[in-house]
Design goal:
This protein has 332 residues and is an alpha/beta fold. It has two domains: 201 residues, 3-Layer(aba) Sandwich (D-Maltodextrin-Binding Protein, domain 2), CATH 3.40.190.150; 97 residues, 3-Layer(aba) Sandwich (D-Maltodextrin-Binding Protein, domain 2), CATH 3.40.190. It has 14 helices and eleven strands.
C-alpha cells in the first residue's frame, strides 16, 4: 500500500494541477483545410440526458457545426459507469465522424478500478481536446459538524462508523472522497447510489453522513439552509460558493479532486483529422459566449489540444491509480 507521502505526491502531479487550475486561453486557430467532415458527426455522451455532461455535449453540438460544416448529433448511451458509450466509439471507424464525450471516470479511473479494464484509453482512443473541469463541494447536514476540522476529528473518533454517499463507484465523488480519507487519516463506509440526487436525498434524510456533491444541486440545499458546505474540492475557490474554502486551504495540501470532460475519437484517427477537430473546438472555446455558457453549468472552462490532451490522459491515470488501489475499490 502506498505511503501517505506517496499519495500526496501522486495527487500533486504538476501537469494535472497546472492544467486544471488554469482557465482556457482564448486562441483563434482556423480549421486546417486538409480535412473536413463529409457527413454529420456522431457525438456519444455516455451519460443520461439532462445532466451536466449531457448539457455540455449539447453546447458543443450547437457551437461546432458552423466551424465544421456538418451537424453534430448527440447520442446518449448511459450504462456501466460510462463504459457502454465508450466501447461504442472504440469500435467505430476512425474517420473523424464518431466522437466520445469522455470524462475523468471513463479515462482516468476505469483502467485501475477494473481488474480487467474493458479498454485502454491511451491505446484504444485518439485524444482530441480537453473541455472543462467539473466542480464539487463536501457537504453535511446543517446539524452536523460546523467545519472541516470538526468533521475530520469526528470521523477519526467514530472509527469508521460514518458513511459517505456517491453517485457511483469510480466517479469523481467517490475517488475524491477516498483521497480525502487517505490524506486526512480517517475511515468511512462508501454507499454508492444511482446518481447524485438519490445520494442527496439520503443525506438529507440522515441515512448517510456526508458526501461530495455536484455544485448545482448542492447549492440549492445550501441556500435553503438544509446542507452545510465544508470545503470545495477544486484547487481554487469557486464563483458559485466564494465563501467556502478549499480542502487545500484547510490544511490538506495536495487534496484536490476535480473531474474533467474531454473529447476523444477511436484509435487510428489520422493526425490531420484529430488536429482539425481539435482546432475547431479550440476556436469555439476561445469565444466569450462559450465560456459564459460553460460556467453557467458550474464547470470551469479548460483547454488542451489534441497533443497535450494525449499527454494529460496517462498522467491522470497515474495520478489516481495509487488512490484507487489504497482504497480497495473495485468494479469487478
Amino acid at each position: 500500500m502506498p505511503t501517505r507521502r506517496g499519495l500526496l505526491l501522486a495527487a500533486s502531479t504538476t501537469l494535472v494541477s497546472t492544467t486544471l487550475a488554469t482557465p482556457a486561453v482564448a486562441l483563434s486557430v482556423p480549421v486546417p483545410p486538409a480535412w473536413a467532415p463529409s457527413h454529420p458527426i456522431r457525438l456519444v455522451v455516455p451519460y443520461p440526458p439532462a445532466g451536466v455532461i449531457d448539457l455540455l455535449g449539447r453546447l458543443l453540438a450547437e457551437a461546432l457545426p458552423p466551424r465544421l460544416g456538418q451537424p453534430l448529433v448527440v447520442e446518449n448511451m448511459p450504462g456501466a459507469g460510462s463504459i457502454i458509450g465508450a466501447q461504442a466509439i472504440q469500435r467505430t471507424a476512425p474517420d473523424g465522424h464518431s466522437l466520445l464525450l469522455t470524462t475523468s471516470t471513463t479515462f482516468a479511473v476505469v483502467p485501475t478500478l477494473y481488474r480487467r479494464p474493458p479498454f485502454d484509453p491511451v491505446r484504444d482512443f485518439t485524444a482530441v481536446a480537453l473541455l472543462a473541469a467539473t466542480t464539487f463541494v463536501l457537504v453535511v447536514r446543517t446539524n452536523g459538524p460546523a467545519s472541516l476540522p470538526a468533521f475530520i476529528a469526528g470521523a477519526k473518533a467514530a472509527g469508521g462508523r460514518i458513511s459517505y454517499g456517491t453517485s457511483g463507484a469510480g466517479t469523481p465523488h467517490h475517488i475524491g472522497f477516498e483521497l480525502l480519507k487517505q490524506l486526512a487519516g480517517f475511515e468511512a463506509t462508501h454507499v454508492p447510489y444511482r446518481g447524485t440526487a438519490a445520494a442527496l436525498t439520503d443525506l438529507l434524510g440522515g441515512r448517510i453522513d456526508v458526501m461530495i456533491a455536484d455544485i448545482p444541486p448542492a447549492v440549492e440545499h445550501i441556500r435553503a439552509g438544509t446542507l452545510r458546505p465544508l470545503a470545495v474540492t477544486n484547487r481554487e475557490r469557486l464563483a458559485a460558493l466564494p465563501e467556502v474554502p478549499t480542502l487545500i486551504e484547510q490544511g490538506l495540501p495536495g487534496c484536490e479532486a476535480p473531474g474533467w470532460v474531454g473529447v476523444a475519437a477511436p484509435a487510428g484517427v489520422p493526425v490531420e483529422i484529430a488536429r482539425a477537430l481539435s482546432a475547431a473546438i479550440t476556436e469555439t472555446m476561445g469565444q466569450p459566449a462559450w465560456k459564459a455558457r460553460v460556467e453557467a453549468l458550474a464547470l470551469l472552462p479548460m483547454l488542451l489540444g489534441a497533443e497535450d490532451f494525449a499527454r494529460f490522459i496517462p498522467a491522470e491515470i497515474a495520478r489516481w491509480a495509487p488512490v484507487i488501489r489504497a482504497s480497495g475499490a473495485s468494479a469487478d
